[in-house]
């Protein structure tokens, strides 16, 4: 179905699910892993909210005195995302100290435009630090005059002495693979004041065609149904995602700091192309530019600090406690080594590019915070899986983790010889070692916050024989994990065997779970970082419970503690 075929009726209705498979869900040995089911869920539709605020509200990029607030207005039924039509609409916006808007501190007007897909960004300035604010938009002109948006909750960054920050860390949400129950849990905790921020590390959308990458789904259908290529396609896909009530609630509940990975453009993209872009699909640069434009339109990012300067990498400060440095690991990277031939001694491919690396170094040098958090969309730590591959029983699990490198042309590896895949930092080892040396030289205590791999991991980071920090990897919101990619039931003993191989081959590995979905809470205090992995019981079930499944604590100048 093309964008022009995305009719009024389909725009006004969206797919949900009540699945006959729920009752057939099998019990599994490992607590809170995703339930394994053998039958596909049924697709059903539900009505969307009325116009004009179909896509909710959002906030992002919090500073001590400012935060970006976002919405999209739909002026009429023809002005669906990607349509390029609809009259400009004047909106009044308000920011208040209370959710009843009794004490309004900032207000103004803004006009939507079809050239920006009727998305609205307001960079609200002059706010107080470390303060919760509430915001809303109201239509001033047109047939929806007086209509009010949902109320959003934002929070500014703190200054001075800061004792604690609690961040939700998330990535990899595939619309067709499951329901966004993890987002619902994030929203509930945020509205209760338990979270300060969401750090989203990429793969907010997936570019694939309907049923091409659905795991045990699809539970609902992509729009457009084909692989997305054009600006209209990307806008339509974002619009589809933002009709999800749980995602809307998670955006409304607290500010997000976001970065893209590959699927916001195309699988395994790099500076000059992507694995999932073919010559018959047109110029890659045109596709990339369209994808980036739609991303800036639909995400709550500060345009003057990002797209206006042609970059997404940026940094944030949370008092004396922690700096968060967001790295863009896609736009500037060289092609991964296995696509460009065998890795040779001295291979110095770049993940960051010269300008971004210099900016990162300067940012780290200027930081005086206790912790250096690095938003990192792909696995930073070395990961070897030769033993998992060599055992025929666990080989499917190895292939699911390393499909980008384990091909028929690669000889069977010996134990510990094979890095996970060249798409991650394993393919850019020279620059990884250079970054570790920079962190060590500057005496930084890094917390790498990572997504991408659809499973839970935790690693120690070493420099000069000393443990200087850790890497925290969240599972996917819904994108297929190793269980769904292989057909091996979640909780199978094969995952236990694979885990034992992984621990033996990777001495810095502290935690791994390959068959879960969810997100991670990172609780930062002056001396410790507590890591809580939150797991969804079953992503095929709407409003499935999300539970604390595993916790670890890393202490400054000590390492992981029991």
Automatic annotation (TrEMBL):
Residues 168-533 form the PhoD-like phosphatase metallophosphatase domain. PROSITE patterns: TAT. Residues 55-156 form the Phospholipase D N-terminal domain. InterPro entries: Metallo-depent_PP-like (IPR029052), PhoD-like_MPP (IPR018946), PhoD-like_sf (IPR038607), PhoD_N (IPR032093), Phospholipid_Metab_Enz (IPR052900), TAT_signal (IPR006311). It comes from the Bacteria. It holds the Pfam family PhoD. This is Alkaline phosphatase D family protein. It comes from Corynebacterium lujinxingii.
């Amino acid at each position: 179905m093309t964008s022009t075929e995305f009719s009024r009726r389909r725009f006004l209705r969206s797919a949900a699910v009540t699945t006959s498979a729920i009752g057939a869900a099998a019990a599994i040995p490992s607590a809170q892993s995703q339930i394994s089911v053998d039958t596909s869920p049924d697709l059903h539709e539900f009505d969307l909210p009325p116009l004009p605020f179909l896509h909710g509200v959002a906030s992002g990029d919090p500073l001590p005195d400012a935060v970006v607030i976002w919405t999209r207005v739909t002026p009429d039924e023809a002005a669906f995302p990607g349509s390029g039509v609809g009259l400009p609409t004047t909106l009044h916006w308000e920011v208040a100290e209370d959710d009843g808007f009794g004490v309004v501190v900032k207000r103004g007007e803004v006009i939507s435009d079809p050239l920006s897909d009727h998305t609205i960004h307001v960079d609200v300035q002059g706010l107080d630090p470390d303060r919760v604010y509430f915001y809303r938009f109201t239509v001033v002109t047109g047939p929806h005059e007086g209509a009010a948006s949902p109320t959003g909750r934002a929070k500014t960054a703190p200054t001075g002495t800061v004792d604690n920050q609690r961040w939700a860390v998330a990535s990899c949400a595939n619309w067709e693979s499951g329901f966004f129950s993890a987002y619902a849990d994030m929203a509930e905790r945020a509205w209760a004041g338990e979270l300060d921020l969401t750090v989203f590390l990429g793969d907010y959308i997936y570019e694939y065609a309907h049923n091409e990458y659905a795991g045990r789904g699809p539970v609902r259908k992509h729009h457009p149904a084909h692989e997305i290529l054009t600006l209209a396609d990307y806008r339509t896909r974002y619009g589809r995602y933002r009709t999800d009530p749980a995602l809307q609630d998670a955006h409304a509940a607290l500010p997000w700091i976001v970065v893209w990975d590959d699927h916001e453009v195309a699988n395994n993209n790099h500076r000059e192309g992507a694995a999932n872009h073919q010559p018959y699909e047109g110029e890659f640069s045109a596709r990339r530019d369209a994808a980036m434009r739609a991303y800036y339109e639909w995400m709550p990012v500060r345009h003057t600090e990002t797209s206006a300067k042609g970059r997404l990498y940026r940094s944030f400060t949370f008092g004396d406690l922690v700096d968060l440095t967001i790295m863009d690991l896609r736009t500037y990277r060289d092609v991964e080594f296995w696509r460009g031939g065998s890795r040779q001694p001295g291979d110095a491919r770049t993940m960051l590019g010269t300008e971004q690396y210099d900016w990162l170094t300067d940012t780290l040098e200027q930081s005086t915070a206790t912790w250096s958090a690095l938003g990192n969309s792909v696995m930073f730590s070395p990961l070897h899986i030769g033993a998992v591959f060599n055992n025929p029983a666990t080989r499917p699990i190895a292939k699911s983790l390393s499909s980008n490198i384990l091909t028929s042309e690669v000889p069977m590896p010996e134990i510990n010889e094979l890095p996970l895949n060249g798409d991650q930092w394993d393919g850019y080892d020279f620059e990884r070692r250079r970054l570790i040396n920079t962190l060590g030289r500057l005496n930084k205590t890094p917390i790498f916050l990572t997504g991408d791999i659809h499973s839970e991991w935790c690693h120690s980071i070493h420099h000069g024989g000393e443990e200087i920090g850790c890497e925290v990897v969240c599972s996917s919101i819904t994108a297929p994990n190793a269980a769904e990619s292989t057909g091996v039931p979640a909780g199978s003993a094969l995952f236990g065997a694979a885990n034992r191989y992984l621990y033996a081959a990777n001495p810095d590995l502290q935690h791994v779970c390959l068959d879960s979905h969810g997100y991670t809470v990172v609780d930062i205090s002056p001396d410790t970082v507590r890591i809580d992995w939150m797991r969804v019981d079953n992503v095929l079930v709407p409003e499935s419970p999300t539970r604390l499944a595993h916790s670890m604590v890393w202490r400054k100048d000590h390492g992981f503690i029991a």
